[in-house]
User: Fold these one by one.
Assistant:
Number 1:
Amino acid sequence: MDMEKALNKIGRSLPQIRDVAESMRDEILANLVLLGEMPAPSGGEEARIKLLLDRFAENDMIRSYSDDAGNGVAVVEGDKGRSNILLVAHADTSFPAREDHTVQLSSESACGFGLGDNSMGLAALATLPALLRRLNISLKSNLILLAATKSQGAHDLEGLRFFLNNNQLPLLGAVCVDGMPQGKLSTHSTGLLRAEVICRVPREYDWTRFGATGAIMAMNEIINKISTIELPTRPRTSIVYATIHGGTSFSTVPRKTSLSFNVLSESEETIQRVERRITDIVEEVGIHTRGQMSFNILCRRKPAELEFSHPLARCARYIFDKLDIEPLIRPSGSELSAVLEAGIPAVTIGITEGDQTDGQQDNLLIAPIGRGMAQLVGLILALDGGLCRA
């Protein structure tokens, strides 16, 4: 069977795959609630990984374990097993364990902290073996399901990098699974510099000096100067402020402030130039204000790209079209960068549609989940059929 006929066969099967996935809605939602209600701040994912492995252990056709980085790994063995397909979803969220992680379900939606990023992605992995069995799909390749730990913040994809650095298995390709948005199709990742600036005012600081205003105004000056840095439109580059903290009360002089931010660019050289400029700014403001300044790099990622014309990207667009999913072509800032850096063809997709509430909870729509699971199965079939080789 030639490539076009094989891809068309997958396309004809997608409506049935979607219908079967929709019939498993209760199981998918049960996994979403089970995993979503277990807090998993980055570096504290152990309980969530255990729940996921317990779900995999219920299927005697799956070999599952936790590796030395705490990743949850499950292997669905293929008929031949000479090649492997990697599906990865990060297990951690950006929310602390103290938040109420109760998931509120209605007939139309699910709402809770971190559901879109990335409890829904994990629920998709947890449900996938049962879906493949219900569809009577037997793969030639082994299917590796990876719940990656320590992906967020300063951990810089630590769990995934550990897996990739120690992997000895030949990988046909990979799909990075996000909870939302459906239609997301990322074939490239931007370069990233994640950093923080900390300003401290020593106790022996001379508050009688003209203009002595404490750590907050010093940080304000740093922000103002960073905002004047000229950024190119090509390659696309931006500085995104993430958090700022400082001060305790009206009656206390602020002695410490911190600022965290990301520098994003399609060019590694541009990121390095911006980094040098920020280093100079922090030093300059420190000298003028006599504050103690520190500029700390939390993580770096290089830009990486899968060519838009690559067969994997082409297959993904075909599958989206057959399922009436409008592609949202956008860069990915997460797992995709590490997988592409390792030389593995990969894309990132989203399972369902949704948005974020004012309280930073994710509100996921239930109806599109079946279609999202069908796109995932379609990509697996394309990879397993050898249709995504360059």
Note: The first helix runs from residue 3 to 23.
Number 2:
Amino acid sequence: MAIQMTFWGQKNQARQAVRQMLVWNPEKIILAHGRWYRQNGMQELRRAFRWLDPIGTN
């Protein structure tokens, strides 16, 4: 819920940013804090931002 509040009123911009990250086709996701993901980066991005549906999952 906290990440959703960050993008309050800017859902289209957030959706565009996530689409760009998906274009990069990441294998790993390393965050400044919290958990990081050694594999399945694309799937993790889609999972984390599923509330932005649709985010260009094709």
Note: The radius of gyration is 11 Å.
Number 3:
Amino acid sequence: MKNNPFTSEIFTTLWLKHFYDSKPSYKFNFIKNVSFYKKTFLPVYINVGKNLTKGIFYRLQKEHSDFKGKIFLLYDIPDYFNVNEQVDLINKKLEVKKIYQYKGYMMDLTNFSSTKDYQTTQFKTKNKRYVRQSHIGRLEKTFEITYDFIFGEIDENKYNVIFDHFHHLLNIRFKGKNTDYHHLNKRKWQFYKELILPLIRAKQASFLIIYNEGVPIGINLNYHAENILFKAITVFDYDYKKFSIGKLSVLKLLDWCFENNYSFSDFSKGYFDYKEKWSNTQYNFNYHLLYDKSSFFATLMANTIETLFKFKLFLRKHNINEKYRKFIYNLKSIKNDDKNRDEFISKMLSKFEPSKDFEIIDVNEKKYHFLIKHINDFLFSNPQYRKNITVFKNSKTNIIVIKGHSKSIQLMFKNNSNQ
């Protein structure tokens, strides 16, 4: 594979800096295109990047035997990478174990000419109404929507603003799910922030950003290798959920892939309903164990590592990992003062004329941010331009009215902190 970002000098150097104290990596003559690190005195070598990549590719080299007495663990090998596993042709003492860990999902675009062509074929019978253009059109007619695909040069100040907002949206999203999202781990996030800027400039990473009035409401982080776009981390502002921003982002990425002659758009490992619906190809995500089978110790260690990962797969199949993440989140979190803000009674009003007890409020003020989702839901059901909306608050009660050009909605919140 050409131009793999996960084995690039940029990725390798920064991963070693953040996770290996900038100590030098190990390279071996028998295996090409990958470097390793070592955690303990045991002869076990792990690929640099570990499980923070979207796919490692390697080649085995004949006439080299510097694997003797050693074990090599390589995370994240999609089977469609077609890594040469015929080790007997390389060296009869070298053995490889493929350990299945995840199902991967991908859009193979090779037999399609456009986004519309792919979409029509993928959703022609099953899930025909999954992607509704009317929802996307409603978004663009309601708000001041713009798009930006950042791939190549980018100003560092602009990058920092985007990345900070990216972190903000992810924090809110997973707080709402009551889940501890491992990518938001401080160490990992510092690594990503330092990594993505040089990768974008090297055209090995990109951002697709959906803006409303210049504020990101959807951000997609992607990696690039040869003719493959890897969809890495995606988040959208949950206040806009009804407008199908997640589906819109996939369509925009497809447009970009066809315009730039990419053959694959890879959702990578792990099941999500949207991945299954969009993908026309599934593949296995394996870990590879290479070891010296003439060494009793290396064979014993390889069998032990294989058993460990099979046990981890068993736990994932029984959703133990999800329960663990929710448990960790609950340990870290404190009581959320806003938890009751969604408890309200609503009533549609065919006509509303504000009395002297009502005053106009600015929902851009932090204390009224919780109203944005209610406004957007109202706009979705009553299509009109966002700037036609006025929000009133009764100074004597906890009643709020969202007023449109013909209809209004009254919200009475049970939580008196909204007064």
Note: The first helix runs from residue 9 to 19.
Number 4:
Amino acid sequence: MQDLTNHTPNRTKTRPTTPSGAVAEFAELPRMIREHGLLDRQIRYYTLKIVSTLSMLILSITLLIVVDNFWIQIANAAFLAFVFGQIGYIGHDAGHLGICRSVRGNRLIGYGVCMLLGMSQTWWLTQHNQHHRTPNDLDDDPHTLIPVFAFSEEKASSKRGIIRFLAAYQAFYFVPMLTFESLALRFSSTQFLVGARRPKTCVPELGLMALHFALYFGLLFYALNPWQALVFALVHQGLFGLYYGMVFAPNHKGMLVLDKDNPLDFVRTQVLTTRNVKPNFLVDFLYGGLNYQIEHHLFTMMPRNRLGKARPIVKEFCRQRGIPYYETGTLRSYREILSHMHEVSAVLRKGSQPPAMFGSGNLPTAKSGVNAAG
């Protein structure tokens, strides 16, 4: 296995090729996964998960209505941000058809989740499925096409105007910017639905979003005075965005970046662009199983509570074939992200040295040409 300690993101420009035997090679992994029953639906698990999550939502709403203490309400806003994150994980799993046996059942859960969160299921499915098809692709992955960030030196160099100035210091504002993720989800959903020109899709989903905000602000202004309601909403939405961003960022940021000329096969594309966060009970709960990102990318329909069981199987599969499988701790994953973002934007700072808080890189990756050969 190639050494993973020296990270310099590498983008290949060679023509796409498929390593000999790659298709047959990957076929062995799904066979082992199925033999262990890891793709079987987990109806009981998800029933308990949905009931417990809705119970937390009801608890937060009850506190909002009955407690007449603003500081407790601020804490409740933070709790509700966590609850919204947990609801989102259910929507994520339903979007991947990982909860119910039928497509219709998963879609209904997805619509319910999107009403509770105030966003579009169709928009989310469109951009998220594209991400899974082209992870960390600087041309096609929506998660890399964020105007105020650059995830490679080439993209940093292409920035112009005020964005170029800002991107030079992107590592400093990356985390604060995550507080706007909640707003971005709603804005992108609305923009997508308004421009979709598909009444059967956009009208119902816009209606569900309108219902969400009517209930949300109706409850806030019923329980709190206008200024308190505004502060509650700002704390809640800001922490919801921060929570989601801090969970999703470690998945790919700072890992191998690709473009349309990606020469790698499916397994290497998914594994080499992805980082796992080392599991424990708390991490699994807070991340909604997304810390097993490699397993999730290889088997998107796998129920959340089976990803941990797939982990040793996938690790051994990769080890036998010399495919670097990378996972790290929670805090180190964030350090790697910030270090990577600071390094790729160095070209915009005219040779300034990275501050000690970001270190000198030391991120995981591998050169595409080497790994394409296995």
Note: The longest helix spans residues 70-95.
